[in-house]
Write a structure and sequence with these properties.
The protein is mainly α and about 280 residues long. The protein has a domain of about 190 residues: Cytochrome Bc1 Complex, Chain C, CATH 1.20.810. Helix 7 runs antiparallel to helix 8, helix 8 crosses helix 9 and helix 8 packs antiparallel against helix 11. The longest helix has about 30 residues.
């Protein structure tokens, strides 16, 4: 029994020293196996490539490529808005049933009875609009700066796929309130799908492929020939599970390719005079 206080005292001293200098503890060393010293280029690069979080960023970057006046920060803002959509969307799922009539009642209940329900729904709706806007601005910046050129052609194609998925997220979310706006928006959109080449019964080569009003792409999207309960359920599954999962995979590939393609493309680096002429500075 006399040894117990000594062990407690020793553990307390170890804890206190660990709180004072956490980088000297074994817990810190087991997580960060390489010191993040900035003494030389090699040690900094080793610290980056040995850490899964730091490895998302290149060891070296063009200092002029990260200016907000150049990038506008639209890629990061778009990803942040996507996270807001995920968070608010999961909360909205607690109050929603993808069933005709009941879905509209859930929206009314959410807006008038649930605490901060109207705020939650408006955050999700306006974040969806904002994501489309920021994504367009991000792609405009990429075009204006020529960031789609070699060696970033593949990542540009990934970005175009993400744009299409974002528009599909907005389209499938239209029907979920089960109101007149959503009903007619989906009606018009799916009627346009009838003219899709090869897979639409009114599109080029559609009849030759055996497409009819009961087996074409419109029928597959709606789960029938009219906008009904099956269409609401399919829109809900695509909006809440299918498209977000696919978009997340494409985002991971997109971020990885940014890292592998040498980071964010930028203008020719501006080298300060004292770095360009070290001999002059030494005088």
């Amino acid at each position: 029994m006399g040894r117990l206080p000594e062990k407690l005292r020793s553990a307390y001293e170890d804890l206190k020293s660990g709180l004072r200098a956490p980088r000297r503890t074994q817990v810190w060393k087991s997580v960060f196996r390489v010191k993040h010293a900035r003494t030389d280029t090699r040690s900094r690069a080793l610290a980056v490539v040995s850490n899964v979080f730091l490895h998302l960023h290149p060891a070296r970057i063009n200092r002029d490529a990260v200016r907000y006046s150049y990038t506008w920060g639209m890629g990061g803002i778009t990803f942040f808005v996507f996270l807001v959509l995920l968070f608010t969307g999961v909360l909205l799922m607690f109050y929603y049933h993808p069933v005709r009539i009941q879905a509209y009642r859930d929206i009314l209940y959410l807006e008038h009875d649930v605490p901060f329900g109207r705020l939650l729904r408006n955050m999700h709706r306006w974040a969806g609009h904002l994501m489309v806007i920021t994504l367009w601005l991000h792609m405009l910046r990429v075009v204006l700066t020529g960031s789609y050129k070699k060696p970033r052609e593949f990542n540009w194609c990934i970005g175009v796929c993400l744009l299409v998925l974002t528009l599909l997220l907005s389209f499938t979310g239209y029907l979920l309130p089960d109101d007149q706006l959503g009903f007619w928006a989906v009606t018009v959109g799916t009627n346009m799908a009838r003219a899709t080449p090869l897979v639409g019964h009114e599109g080029p080569l559609g009849p030759q492929m055996g497409m009819t009003p009961y087996n074409d792409i419109r029928f597959a999207l709606l789960g029938g020939s009219i906008v009904d309960s099956a269409a609401l359920l399919r829109a809900y599954i695509w909006h809440c599970i299918g498209i977000p999962v696919i978009a997340s995979i494409f985002m991971v590939v997109h971020f990885w390719r940014v890292r592998k393609d040498g980071g964010i493309s930028g203008p020719a680096p501006v080298i300060p005079e004292h770095e360009a002429n070290p001999a002059v500075n030494a005088r």
